[in-house]
Amino acid sequence: MRVLIVEDDPRLANTLRLGLLEEGFGADVVGDGDEAIAAALATAFDVVTLDVMLPGRRDGFQVCAELRRRRVRTPVLMLTGRDAVSDRVRGLEAGADDYLVKPFAFVEFLARLRALTRRHLADRSAVLEAGRLRLDTSARELTVGGQPVRLTTREFAILEYLMHHPRRVLSRMQIEEHVWDYDFDSASNLVDVYVGRIRRKLAVAAAGDHIVTLRGAGYRFDPEPACVNASGAPESG
Fold it and tell me: Is the whole model's pTM more than 0.90, yes or no?
């Protein structure tokens, strides 16, 4: 799981980051609202922890509202020293999923993060559709134009992860952490191999190329596919 920590207090931000790393989480830190919005739009985080009092032109309430306006559905845990009921209500109305008042124990912070991710996963649609693709996550079936396409367990998991985050860049490390339960050498090309297999199967089924490679960054799923040939390579125009 990868967490975006939005916190302008370097000491607290580092404490949270190190604690999450020890628990096996990935953690990125930004210090103001504009950086938070840019990071959340560029990367598919599993949770955002968002301080209310931020420097710059946007506070945490405004950042959360802007993320929701831009259709970022990532769960948001707001962190603040303000414990008035009106502040909590304002945070929830801005689109936050939970609210934690400082100071707090790290074990409670961690428990709330895990609860948010569980609820978020449970709320996801069981059927994902894009173009001619229909991925039934309950039945574990992929069809293209109504015709079944057989995927291995790993291939299905990668495609499901990509489709759950349309138009978002997912790094190879994020995909590895989501699909496999153990660490890989950073030079491993295993994700590339599996994505190549998925592309070829989609090409044979005439699904178009929904998966875009971003060199040095990872992969992005586009709901509107490019045309491809049977080898899985995009066709030149």
Answer: no
The per-residue b/e assignment along 153-173, b for 16 or more CB within 10 angstroms, e otherwise, is ebbbbbbbbbbbbbebbbbbb
* Residue 187 backbone zone (phi > 0: left; psi -120 to 50: alpha; other: beta): alpha
- 8 backbone dihedrals φ, ψ, rounded to 5°: -90, -5
Q: State the DSSP code for 216.
A: T
CATH code reported for the domain at 2-120: 3.40.50.2300
Fold of 127-221: Arc Repressor Mutant, subunit A (1.10.10)
**What residues does each domain of the chain span?**
2-120, 127-221
**How far apart (Å, rounded) are the C-alpha atoms in residues 86 and 102?**
16
Q: Which residue has the tokens 């090409």?
A: 203
Q: Say if 2-120 and 127-221 have the same CATH topology.
A: no
Mean pLDDT, residues 29-47: 90
Share of the chain above pLDDT 90, in %: 55
User: How many Å is the Cα radius of gyration of the chain?
Assistant: 19
- Provide the token pair at 31: 């210090």
